[in-house]
Amino acid sequence: MSFLQPAGPVIDLGINIDHVATLRNARGTSYPDPIRAALLAEQAGADCITLHLREDRRHIKDADVIALAPQLLTRMNLEAAVTQEMIDFACRIKPADVCLVPEKRTEVTTEGGLDVVTHFKAVQAAVRQLQGEGIRVSLFIDADEAQIAAAAEIGAPVIELHTGRYADTDGAEQAAELERIKAGVLFGVGRGLKVNAGHGLHYTNVQAIAAIPDIAELNIGHAIVAHAVFAGWENAVREMKAIMVSTRLGQGAK
């Protein structure tokens, strides 16, 4: 048993490789290669590889997803908008997981959770099509009881709670947002959902989220890519995994 791979489940780390592709695309080169980044991340302790194929293809390209799918030793978590193009593409690739996310062309990054309540029928149709191909579906939503209840009603087995507001605040506001996330986790687990979380997490704010006992997985990308500039890619992955696991094990010892 190693520290990064203890016996039994502790908490999983999904490495988002989008911004490796962003660096590549900035100069129109073939490097840095997001496929290589994904495979090295697996070797360094990543439990899954997350990538977002956006409608405008601003970072990850179709060819990246196609090339990566057969090479992964863990599993692919493909983030996609609720559009017929993206759902059909996912059904052709058949990743282990598809996380349905909101998407706007004008945003720098995802600004909030998917509004499942408002778009119930469209999300339900997407979930059913993906599940028909044997793909596990996750919905990226805010820690709101109405959204979580709608996700459970649709039949999605997994939700990923948006942690962006927590990451962007501090002090009393951040503490209140943390409590909202904790309540959302309990509400989701109570409805039989696997609960993941992510967005905006980095090396000094992830601890409080990782300490929430019922969170199964955190998906983190930008902070790890940024830290890798100074620490190296594999070291950056290992450090994040170590922080998450040590925090969770420390909570269990209390």
Q: What's a quick, concise take on this entry?
A:
The chain has 254 residues and is α/β, with parallel strands linked by helices.
Give a verbal description of the structure.
This protein has 254 residues and is an alpha/beta fold. The protein contains eleven helices and eight strands. An eight-stranded parallel β-barrel has the order 1-2-3-4-5-6-7-8, surrounded by seven helices. Helix 2 packs across helix 11 and helix 10 crosses helix 11. It is globular and about 45 Å long. The N terminus is likely disordered. Pathway: Cofactor biosynthesis; pyridoxine 5'-phosphate biosynthesis; pyridoxine 5'-phosphate from D-erythrose 4-phosphate: step 5/5.
Secondary structure elements and pairings:
Elements: E1 12-16, H1 18-27, H2 34-43, E2 48-52, H3 62-68, E3 76-80, H4 84-93, E4 97-100, H5 120-132, E5 136-141, H6 145-154, E6 158-162, H7 164-168, H8 171-190, E7 194-198, H9 206-210, E8 215-220, H10 222-231, H11 233-252
Parallel strand pairs: 1-2, 1-8, 2-3, 3-4, 4-5, 5-6, 6-7, 7-8
Active site: 52 (proton acceptor), 79 (proton acceptor), 199 (proton donor)
Site (Transition state stabilizer): 160
Keywords: Cytoplasm, Pyridoxine biosynthesis, Transferase
